[in-house]
Amino acid sequence: MRIGGIEAGGTKMVCAVATDDGTLLERVEIPTRTPADTVPEMLGFFKGKGIESLGIGCFGPVDLNPESETYGYITSTPKLAWADYNIVGAFQEALGVPVGFDTDVNGAIMGEAVWGAAKGCRNAIYITVGTGIGVGVCINGEPLHGLVHPEGGHILMARQESDSFEGCCPYHGCCLEGMASGPAIEKRWGKPGRLLQDKKEVWELEAFYLAQAVANYIMLYSPEKVILGGGVMHQEGLLEQVQKKVVDMLAGYVHHPMIEKHIESYIVHPALKDNPGILGAVYLGMRAYQNVQLETNEVSE
Amino acid sequence: MRIGGIEAGGTKMVCAVATDDGTLLERVEIPTRTPADTVPEMLGFFKGKGIESLGIGCFGPVDLNPESETYGYITSTPKLAWADYNIVGAFQEALGVPVGFDTDVNGAIMGEAVWGAAKGCRNAIYITVGTGIGVGVCINGEPLHGLVHPEGGHILMARQESDSFEGCCPYHGCCLEGMASGPAIEKRWGKPGRLLQDKKEVWELEAFYLAQAVANYIMLYSPEKVILGGGVMHQEGLLEQVQKKVVDMLAGYVHHPMIEKHIESYIVHPALKDNPGILGAVYLGMRAYQNVQLETNEVSE
Q1: Is the pLDDT of residue A301 over 70?
Q2: CA-closest candidate to residue A18, choices A43, A52, A47
Q3: What is the mean pLDDT of chain A?
C-alpha cells in the first residue's frame, strides 16, 4: 500500500510517497510560491503514483476542527497568498483520496512516535528550532488539539540576566521563538548561527532559553520523550548543553530516573533525521485511510 | 448508588459520600496528622455507609503508574509522615471496594469537566492558587499523566521588572508557586493576602504572574476552559485582572472568539464552588467502579 505525504512549509513543500511501514519510496522538495503556482506542481508529483491516501502536516495557523466550515484551511498566516486557503479541499478534490491533516509539528511528533525516537511512548513532544519554533504534542497516542492547536513555540520566557536583546517575535518579544529561533540568533549576534559555530557564548545563551522552555514542557506535559529537531539543533554540543541545563533548572523537583540518571536518552535528536515531518505526514495519511475503513465498516454492519 | 470521595490535602482530609450524579450526601473535614492517627478516623466515616467504590484525589507527588510496584503511594513528599505511604492500598484493604486515584488537581478538573464549569469540554485545566499552586489537566476527556504527573504550578517565570522578591519555592525560586502562592504573597508583602485586600499593587502583581502562567498554559494545552480556584482567587477583582492581562500577553497571537471576545466565560471560577476537589474524587471513584465492571464483562464474555 502506498501513501502520500506533504510537509507544507513556508519555504518549501516536501512531497513523498511511502509504504505503510514508513519506508520513503520517493521524495521531492518544491519551493513554496503561491498556491496557483505550487499546488499544480505538487499534484503533478502525486498523479499516477497509486496512493491510497494523503497526509498533510502544515505550517500554521490551521483549522483542525472537523466541525468547522473552514476545516482543512490555512487561516490567518502572514504568508498572505496562503491565508484562508483550503489546502485539504484542494488535494482531496484533485486526487480523490482521503486526506489527513494536522500541524507540521504534530505530524512530526506522530512520525517519531510511530517510527522514531518516541516509539512506544504514549506521551511525547517534538520541538523544532529553526526559522520559527514549534512544538508538536502527542498525548495518549494522539496529536493534541484543543480550542485551537498548541502554540508552544511562543511561550513567554524569563530573559537571561545579562541579555538585553528585546526578542524578535512581533507579537510577544521575549517568547521562545523571539529569543531562540534562527532569526533571533542572527538579530542578536549580527550574523547567522552557521557563522557563529565557534562562539561559546552564543550556544550557552541558546541552551539557556531552550532548556528553560523544555523544563516547563516537562513540568506541563510530563512527556516520556523530548525530541529536539530543526536546523539550529545541528550545532554541535547544543543538545548536550540543553540536557544539562534542564536537569539544573528542574532542580531535583521532578523525580524520575529518566531525568535523574538517563537525561541523554530522554532529551534526544529525532531518530528520523531530517524526515520526522514528512514521515509524520505519511502517518497522518495512514490514519485518514484507516478512519475511512472504520466508517465504511460501521455503515455496512 | 453511593460513592465515597477523599480530597487528601496536607492540612485537611475532606471525606464525602455522594450519589453518581455528583450530589454530596455527607461531607466532613478531618485534620491531616499522621497516617496512623488520621486514616482510622477517615475509615470510621466511610464504614457502614454502603459505598460501592472510592476515589482519592491526593496531594503529591504520587505514583500513578499502574505498572509500578508503588502504584497508589504518596512518594517523596516533604510531609514526612506520609512519604512512601500506600494510601490506595490502605483504603482498598479496609473497605474492600475499588479505589480510583489521581492527583488532587487532576481530580478537581475532572469534577469540573463532568459536573462544573468545563462540562462538555474535551480539554480543560484547573489551577488552584493557595498554599501551593497546582494544575490539573484534562485532555480528550482523560486526566493527563505521563512520565510522572504534570507539575504545572512550578513552571519557571519571568520576574516583573520592578519585583525584587526572590521567590519562596525552595527548588526553583522564581517559579509560579514561588512568586504567586499564598505564602509568596505573605513573604513578599509581610502579611497574608487576607490583610492586604485593599492594596491595589499586591493584586496587580499577583495578576501579572497568574496571567503569565495562564497565557503559557493556553499556548501549550489549548484548553477549551481555564478554571482558577483556591483560596487566593477569592480576592475580589483578581479573576477579572487575570482575564485582561492574559489577553494583553497573548497579544492577538491565538485567534479564537473565546479569547478575543468572550474571555469572561473562558477564564472562570470553579462552578462547583469549594467542592471541585471532593467531587472530582467522587468521579475518580465512579471511574474505578466502571473499570471493574468493564473488566468483569470482558472476562465473562
Answers
A1: no
A2: A52
A3: 96
pLDDT band at B301 (very low <50, low <70, confident <90, very high): low
Q: Which of B218, B251, B255 is the closest to A172 by Cβ? A: B251
Pairing relationship of beta strands B53-58 and B2-8 according to DSSP bridges = parallel
CA angle A105, A110, A112 (to 5 degrees): 95
User: Which residues in chain B touch residue A223, judged by CB atoms under 8 angstroms apart?
Assistant: 146-147
The CA dihedral of A51, A55, A57, A63, to the nearest 10 degrees, is 140
The helix (run of H) or strand (run of E) holding residue B73 is strand B73-74
Confidence check: pLDDT of A54 > 70: yes
Inter-chain CB pairs, A–B, below 8 Å: 135
Q: How far is A63 from chain B (nearest CA, A)?
A: 11
Query: Closest Cα of chain B to A164: distance in Å?
Result: 13
CA distance B166 to B174: 6
Task: Name the grid cell of A23.
Answer: 519506508
User: Best mutation site among A76, A156, A209 for testing chain B: the one with the most B CBs within 10 Å?
Assistant: A156
Give the residue ranges of DSSP H helices in chain B.
35-46, 87-95, 104-115, 176-180, 182-189, 200-221, 238-250, 257-260, 276-300
Q: Half-sphere exposure (CA, 13 Å, Cβ side) for B229?
A: 24
Contact call for A172 and B144, based on CB within 8 A: no
Q: Give, as one character, the DSSP assignment of residue A160.
A: P
Closest by alpha carbon to B158, among B171, B178, B175, B133? B175
Could B219 and A172 be called an inter-chain contact, meaning their C-beta atoms sit closer than 8 Å? no
Q: Which residue has the cell 467531587?
A: B279
Q: Which three cell numbers stand for residue A237?
A: 554540543
Q: What is the CB-side half-sphere exposure of residue A64 using CA atoms within 13 A?
A: 24
Query: How far separated are the first and last CA of chain A, in Å rounded?
Result: 25
How many CB atoms are located within 10 Å of the residue A234 CB? 16
Q: What is the pLDDT of residues A19-34, one digit of tens each?
A: 999 999 999 999 999 9
Mutate to test the interface with B, among A73, A222, A250 (most CBs of B within 10 A): A222
Q: What is the ipTM of this complex?
A: 0.95
Q: Where are the alpha helices (DSSP H) in chain A?
A: 35-46, 87-95, 104-115, 176-180, 182-189, 200-221, 238-250, 257-260, 276-300
Q: Do A222 and B61 count as a contact with CB atoms less than 8 A apart?
A: no
Spatial distance between the Cα atoms of A275 and A183, rounded to a whole number of angstroms: 22
Which of A108, A118, A119 is closest to A143 using CA atoms?
A: A108
Give which of B63, B138, B147, B151 to mutate to test A binding, by max A Cβ within 10 Å. B147
* Pairing label, strands B2-8, B12-19: antiparallel
Query: Are residues A10 and A284 in contact, defined by beta-carbon separation less than 8 angstroms?
Result: no
Which residues of chain B have a CB within 8 Å of the CB of A61? 255
> Min CA distance, A243 vs chain B (Å)?
16
What would the pLDDT profile of A211-230 be if each residue is shown by its tens digit?
A: 999 999 999 999 999 999 99
DSSP code at position A76: S
Question: Does the beta-carbon distance from A150 to B220 stay under 8 Å?
Answer: yes
* Mean pLDDT for the stretch of residues A76-84: 87
Determine the Cα–Cα distance for residues A229 and A217; give it in Å rounded to an integer: 15
